[in-house]
Each structure stands twice: as C-alpha cells, then as structure tokens.
Amino acid sequence: MSAAPLVRGWCPTAWRPMAAGDGLILRVRPRLGRVSREQMHVVADVARAHGSGLIDVTNRAALQLRGLRERDWTSALDPLIAAGLVDHDPVREGRAMLVAPDWRAGDDTHRIASALLEQIDALPPLPGKIGFAVDAGALPVLGASPADFRIERAATGALMIRPDGRPTGAAVADGDEAAALIALAHWFHQSGGARAGRMARHAAPLPDWASDTLSPASGGVAMAQGDHPLGVAIGLPFGRIDADTLDKLAALPGVTGLRLTPWRIVLVEGATSAKLPHVGPVDLSVDACVGAPACPQATVETRTLATRLAPHVAGRLHVSGCAKGCARAAPADVVVTGRVGRFDVALNARADDAPARSGLSADDLIAFLESHPDAA
Ligand code: SF4
C-alpha cells in the first residue's frame, strides 16, 4: 500500500466500475436524483445478488453498490437498465447531473433538468469528473456540492448560469437554460478545458454571454433531517444504507420513492414520521471515508475510529484513510489522516494539509484532542 493517494481523474460509472478492496464499485445515477418505489426494490435486489448488499449515497447524490464480483458485474447491469436506472449508452450514463432534491413536477428545477436530459446527446466529450447542477429553487442549495456548470437562482430572482470557480454569472432567458449549459460545455471543450480537468481549474476567459456580475441568491440551506413536505428526510451514517433497509423503506405504506441528496440524507417520499419510529437523527458533523480494508489506498480503518473520536470533537470531524480526502473536500475543525498505518492530525484543515502532529495511534489522538480545548 502506498502513503500517497492515487488520483485517477475519472469516476466509476455503471459501465466502468472501479476496483476497491471489497470488490467492484458500481455507480448508479438515477434520473433527477429520484428512485421510484419499484426501483428501490431493484437496487436492493441487485446489491444483494451481485454485491455485498452495502450501498453508499455519494456527495453527488449517486448510489454506489459495493462489493460486486468481477465475473458478474455485467449481469448486474441488465436489471438496472431494464428498470431505467442505468442508460444503455455508456456515454450518456457518464453525464453527471445534480438537482436540487426537493423539486416538484413542473417547477424550474424539474423543467430544466428534464430539458437537459432530453438534449444530453448534444454535449461534447468531457472529462469524467465534469458535472452539471440544476439548482433553480427559491434559493440555491447546491453551491457547496461538486458541479462544474450551474443553473442557479440569482439574488435578483432571475435564473443564471455560473461556471464553477467564478463568483458571478449571467442571466439566462426562460427556456434557454439547458441550451446555455450545453453551450458552456462546448466552450469548455473548445477552449482546452480537458487539460484542466475541472471548470474551477480552467482559467480561460469566458464567452461574453456567460460572463456577467450576477450573484447567486444567498441563504439556501441543505435539507434537514425530519419531516418534510414531500415525506421524511433521514440521515445515513457515513452515507451508507444496506439493501434490506432500502427494501423496508420501499415497503412502507404510502412511500412512492426516494430522493437522493449530496448531504448524506435521503428523502423518503410519502413517508411519515409515525411510520419510521426507529429512525432517529444521525450525527452528520462527522465525515469518514470507507478506509481500510474496503479502499486499497487506505492503511488505516476510519469509521470505527471516527465514532470513537466524535465525542471528543466539538465541531466538524473528518477522518480520512489517506490524503485524498474523499469524504470531505473542505476543511474540518479536526482532520485525522491515515498514513502508513498511523494517523496525522490537524486543526481547521483539509486531509492533505500539513499536520500538527504525525505518527499517532488512536489513543494518542484522544490525548491530543483532550489537550486542545479549542477542538474538544
Ligand atoms: S480518502 Fe479514503 S476512500 Fe479516498 S482514496 Fe483515501 S482511503 Fe480511499
């Protein structure tokens, strides 16, 4: 195992699974971030039959089925394609789109995302990590979630297009939003964006029509756990759910589907709190990647350690199996990073920042946290 993280520059898809320490990872990107009740059962069946039964919800609101066997991951595709969860075209399946998860049929987010899906073949070749965000509710909520080309609600109330990494964008006429996203993707392609890999790293001057001083509206917040007008929002510890739980949620009376969010929360459409008596709030202030042994880049276990450390941290805790920091790109109040079987720790830092202390054991970490009252 290596101490340095391996940066692959591509994301696993259903058509291009990624090898991990616990088998293949097969990523499913449900259309509009919604899985119907029937599709929930299909995902659960496939996860059990072909994998470990463990499913992660990613920070791009995709589902990752874990532990698939090399020899039969292609068999897992057939039911997913038949259920409309995976496109039969690998290129189309590679297009990542995040939507504000509380959309309603016919609203701006639904209308624009549907239009983009209809025109998806008009997109140019793009690097695998490139993604779109349609965030057209009353206030933007996806600003901290990964996406390269965004449609957002502006402070003026208009809809705007904004390339990631630029603080402002330009107004888009009603009905032109999907075409504007596609045009911006073509500009990215033609101006050499593939070399940068992501929009935020692409410094080329924007076309005039996409460059203006419109700011996104502020004040939008991520969905909270608990009752929601569309159902009940439940937190997932470390973003994970298992196939049996997915089946049970789908079988609840009144449930019509599942909305995926980038915040380790799923919205169970049509559910009521009374039907979910055993579901309590989850501590979402702790981030931890899968770590060892599921990730071949990790030399340390992460999630048991994170649960042990959490009571010693007052703010946000991030435990990362290596410096890549998959579970959290932003700084955390306390970040613990695995390195060659031991741990580095830093305050107000990212997983790849310089550590305050290195080579610690789990007990050393607790002693460190207790000696830093600003962290505990
Ligand atoms: S951060 Fe965690 S999941 Fe990501 S590569 Fe490192 S060990 Fe693996």
Summarize the helices and strands and which ones pair or pack.
Layout (H helix, E strand, L loop, with lengths): L17 E3 L2 E6 L5 E3 H14 L3 E4 L5 E6 L4 H10 L7 H4 L2 E4 L8 H11 L12 E5 L13 E5 L5 E5 L6 E2 L5 H14 L2 H4 L29 E3 L2 E5 L4 E3 H9 L5 E4 L4 E5 L16 E3 L14 H7 L7 E4 L11 E8 L2 E8 L7 E4 L1 H9 L6
Parallel strand pairs: 6-7, 7-8, 16-17, 17-18
Antiparallel strand pairs: 1-2, 2-5, 3-14, 4-5, 4-13, 8-9, 9-10, 11-12, 12-15, 14-15, 18-19, 19-20
Helix pairs in contact: 1-2, 1-7, 4-5
The structure holds iron/sulfur cluster.
Attribute tags:
alpha+beta, binds iron/sulfur cluster, 9 helices, disordered N terminus, 4 iron, 4 sulfur cluster binding, Sulfite Reductase Hemoprotein, domain 1, metal-binding, 376 residues, globular, 24% strand, metal ion binding
Globally, the shape reads globular
Helix content: 10-25%
Overall mean pLDDT stands at: 94
Q: Structural class given helices, strands, pairing? A: alpha+beta
Largest sheet: 5 strands, antiparallel
- What is the name of the CATH topology of the largest domain? Sulfite Reductase Hemoprotein, domain 2
Major sheet strand order:
1-2-5-4-13
- Indicate how many domains the architecture comprises: 3
Order of helices and strands: EEEHEEHHEHEEEEHHEEEHEEEHEEEEH
Q: Which ligands accompany this protein?
A: iron/sulfur cluster
Would you count the extended β strands for me? Answer: 20
- End-to-end CA span: 32 Å
As a percent range, the share of strand residues is 15-25%
CATH superfamily of the largest domain: Sulfite Reductase Hemoprotein,Domain 2
| CATH domain class of the largest domain | Alpha Beta
Radius of gyration over all CA atoms, rounded = 21 Å
Assign the CATH architecture of the largest domain: Alpha-Beta Complex
Q: Are there runs of 5+ residues with pLDDT below 50, and where?
A: 1-7
| Count of helical regions | 9
